[in-house]
């Protein structure tokens, strides 16, 4: 945002090296740092704003403390004013927001002077409500001197009903999200006709987050937007902002469906960054199958947040799960209370699922400096202007290098030095990364993977488009090559009806309700306090079976609740406040069948395949674990219905001769395959833009469809998300890294750092570490004889 370039207020700015030095003192603390990367400061490169930017806008920017733009900001503005769709993909805090705001505000001012009154409009899309609210604050600060020519307003699920009509009629800069565009604006486009008719720019912020199934949905929503705009005579220019990414123009064009120019040379200055890789120590405890237990990343990160708060270092700790964010904040508050009773109130959790007023209060407290430390999910990762942070702790690798740098970049946003610490979880990928720093610091960030042609994604959007305006033959090209094949299927299912030259939506229900673009698959489950009826928040339908099952511990703003009942029919989880000394983790079982083999390549006698599968999954039990140590206290059975998923998978088979060559005896076969499956799932995010929770796996000593020992890894989304396909194309490197990760682990028989999985439905039994290494060695010997799978 524009504020990224405002010099920080005078105050104490602790040296990141000094802060890390203090954190590493104490018994065994120094040995936990496996690597420290020092990124030197970088000077900035200025340029001049294009002459077409109105002087009032330039003066307003100067009043905010920015005399001249960085070079990439000026180039972005120049392309935007010329009518080119453009993506600016530069580092965190490089002022990307100002790069698109300057031309947008200038054009809106031009339009406000037009004789028709409404003039020009612009639409801003962000992946989170928090980011849209943050942008609204920033725009208000910047445009205050510009008078009434800029009328910016947030339009999302939190916007009061009485304000929505004003936004539709009078706002010329509307800030919203893809969900609201999909469910609200496009289905109701006649009420938005004057806004859409004048639409000049569509800003897509943090566009690298639109990947996988979510990105594929958003790509189709944007095609629907372009079609409706064309109906009203407009053809908006797309302005996209992204964290540093591989091939940003290709990804942006795939997302929007239009040619996009890329700006990747970062002209902004950067302070020194000290980036430490931190591995928690092994404990004396033993987990499943007697495996050694490493101290949890949650406990370690809570300690670091506590120590940083005591030093007065403003910190955000990023956590992968909502429960983890609550737990880290709770532990830090308890420990700080022992040091200084004024400090616990300056630590909080921030996550999705909070009520709107709770989120807004936390955002205000963070901006004001009232909060010293925050444990947050990725809801706070994206672009929010959190000025003045000194340090970021990342509790567990977030799944991609792009996301890691995005989170680390939250600190030092005003040009001073910054400290970033990645705390490894007890997980194959995290363990691999903290001992192979080149995989983080010497590799480019990932390309953004999305597949708008996924039929599970495309079909409901064709229905939604037909409900907005009847679909005609010329429209089909807009939605992609898979459209023509899908239309007869939609007619056969009586979702669409062809009349004369167009297809119509004929059902009474809303077509936009056919799909949840975030892939949640159903109505969110409301979490309700049983005694009072008070709504605490919501949980995505897809996560309900694993997070709010009967007996689950649910954390909300530092309070613990036990789930007494999960009513799937009414989408309600009833909870009561409690203080159990444990957390809960769901366990599931999975079966898989092959529907179609799309591609198959030989690896010696082995076979590497890619195709369509059907997965049947059922949550069967949950574990109770001690809060700090993660030690298993017990397991309870659950009776929940199975779920079926049709998706894409990569799988490999081996023959009896190969098993004999690898000295994998029949009694060790199940354990070898199971261990290889777990480890390969853990390592895959290094090669595909995914998270281990986006993918699943199954290993079978004799699969009924292949009649051979088989290991499957599949996408956890209907129709696939591109992850398994990427695994197929990089299989030799992916499985070689898997073998290396298992072999390099210091444990004797297998542990969570190499072959154990936190979501294994079989209690991590059987597993055979040594047999898995021999099996993968033999498999990869065959792979070396073959050319790589074609991209």
In brief:
This protein has 791 residues and is an alpha/beta fold.
Mind explaining what this structure looks like?
Helices cover 35% and strands 24% of the residues. With 791 residues, the protein is of the alpha/beta class. The protein folds into 5 domains: 28-34 and 272-433, 3-Layer(aba) Sandwich (Rossmann fold), CATH 3.40.50.300; 55-263, 3-Layer(aba) Sandwich (Rossmann fold), CATH 3.40.50.300; 455-514; 525-580, no CATH class; 587-782, no CATH class. The strands form 6 sheets. A 7-stranded mixed beta sheet has the order 1-9-16-15-12-14-13, with helices on both faces. It has a 7-stranded parallel beta sheet with strand order 4-5-3-6-7-2-8, with helices on both faces. β23 and β24 form a beta hairpin. It comes from Streptomyces antimycoticus. Residues 1-22 are annotated as: Disordered. Keywords: ATP-binding, Helicase, Hydrolase, Nucleotide-binding.
């Amino acid at each position: 945002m524009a504020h990224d370039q405002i010099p920080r207020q005078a105050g104490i700015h602790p040296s990141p090296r000094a802060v890390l030095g203090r954190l590493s003192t104490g018994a065994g603390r120094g040995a936990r740092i496996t690597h420290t990367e020092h990124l030197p400061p970088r000077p900035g490169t200025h340029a001049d704003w294009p002459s077409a930017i109105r002087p009032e806008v330039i003066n307003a920017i100067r009043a905010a403390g920015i005399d001249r733009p960085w070079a990439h900001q000026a180039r972005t503005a120049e392309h935007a004013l010329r009518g080119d769709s453009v993506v600016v993909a530069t580092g965190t805090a490089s002022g990307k927001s100002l790069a698109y705001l300057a031309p947008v505000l200038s054009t809106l001012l031009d339009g406000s002077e037009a004789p028709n009154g409404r003039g020009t409009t612009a639409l801003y899309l962000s992946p989170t409500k928090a980011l849209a609210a943050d942008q609204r604050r920033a725009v208000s600060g910047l445009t205050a001197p510009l008078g009434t020519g800029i009328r910016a307003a947030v339009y999302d699920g939190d916007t009061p009903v009485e304000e929505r009509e004003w936004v539709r009629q009078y706002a010329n800069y509307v800030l919203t999200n893809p969900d609201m565009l999909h469910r609200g604006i496009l289905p109701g486009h006649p009420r938005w006709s004057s806004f859409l008719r004048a639409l000049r720019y569509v800003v897509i912020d943090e566009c690298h987050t639109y990947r996988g199934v979510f990105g594929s949905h958003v790509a189709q929503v944007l095609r629907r937007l372009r079609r409706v705009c064309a109906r009203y005579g407009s053809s908006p220019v797309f302005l996209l902002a992204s964290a540093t990414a591989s091939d940003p123009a290709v990804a942006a064009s795939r997302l929007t469906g239009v040619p996009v120019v890329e700006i990747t040379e970062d002209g902004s200055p950067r302070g020194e960054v000290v980036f430490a890789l931190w591995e928690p120590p092994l404990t004396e405890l033993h987990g499943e199958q007697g495996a050694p237990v490493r101290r949890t990343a949650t406990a370690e990160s809570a300690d670091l947040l506590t120590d940083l708060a005591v030093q007065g270092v403003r910190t955000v700790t990023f956590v992968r799960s909502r429960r983890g964010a609550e737990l880290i904040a709770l532990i830090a508050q308890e420990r700080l209370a022992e040091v200084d009773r004024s400090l616990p109130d300056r630590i909080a959790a921030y996550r999705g699922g909070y009520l709107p007023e709770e989120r807004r209060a936390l955002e205000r407290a963070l901006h004001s400096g009232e909060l010293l430390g925050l444990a947050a999910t990725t809801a706070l990762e994206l672009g929010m202007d959190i000025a003045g942070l000194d340090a970021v702790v990342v509790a567990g690798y977030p799944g991609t290098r792009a996301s890691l740098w995005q989170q680390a970049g939250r600190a030092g946003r005003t040009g001073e030095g910054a400290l970033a610490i990645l705390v490894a979880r007890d997980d194959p990928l995290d363990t691999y990364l903290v001992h192979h720093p080149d995989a983080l610091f010497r590799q480019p960030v990932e390309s953004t993977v999305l597949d708008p042609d996924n039929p599970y994604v495309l079909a409901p959007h064709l229905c939604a488009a037909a409900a907005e305006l009847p679909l005609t033959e010329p429209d089909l090209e807009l939605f992609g090559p898979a459209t023509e094949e899908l239309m007869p299927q939609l007619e056969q299912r009586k979702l669409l009806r062809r009349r004369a030259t167009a297809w119509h939506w004929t059902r009474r229900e809303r077509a936009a309700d056919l799909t949840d673009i975030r892939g949640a698959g159903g109505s969110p489950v409301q979490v309700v306090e049983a005694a009072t009826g008070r709504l605490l928040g919501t949980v995505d339908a897809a996560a309900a079976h694993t997070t709010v099952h009967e007996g689950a511990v649910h954390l909300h703003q530092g309070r613990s609740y036990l789930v007494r009942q999960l009513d799937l029919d009414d989408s309600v989880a009833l909870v009561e406040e409690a203080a159990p000394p444990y957390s809960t983790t769901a366990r599931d079982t999975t079966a898989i069948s092959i529907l179609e083999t799309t591609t198959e390549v030989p690896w010696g006698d082995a076979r590497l395949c890619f195709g369509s599968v059907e997965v049947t999954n059922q949550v069967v039990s949950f574990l109770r674990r001690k809060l700090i140590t993660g030690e298993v206290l017990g397991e309870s059975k659950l009776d929940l219905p199975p779920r079926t998923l049709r998706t894409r998978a990569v799988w490999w088979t081996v023959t009896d001769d190969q098993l004999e060559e690898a000295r994998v005896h029949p009694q060790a076969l199940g354990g070898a395959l199971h261990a290889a499956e777990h480890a390969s799932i853990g390592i895959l995010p290094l090669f595909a833009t995914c998270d281990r929770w986006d993918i699943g796996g199954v290993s079978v000593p004799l699969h009924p469809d292949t009649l051979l020992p088989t290991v499957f890894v599949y996408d956890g989304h209907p129709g696939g998300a591109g992850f398994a396909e990427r695994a197929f194309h990089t299989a030799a490197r992916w499985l070689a890294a898997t073998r290396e990760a298992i072999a390099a682990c210091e444990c004797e028989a297998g542990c969570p750092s190499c072959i154990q999985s936190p979501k294994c439905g079989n209690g991590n039994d059987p597993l055979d570490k040594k047999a898995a290494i021999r099996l993968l060695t033999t498999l990869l010997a065959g792979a070396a004889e073959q050319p790589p799978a074609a991209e």
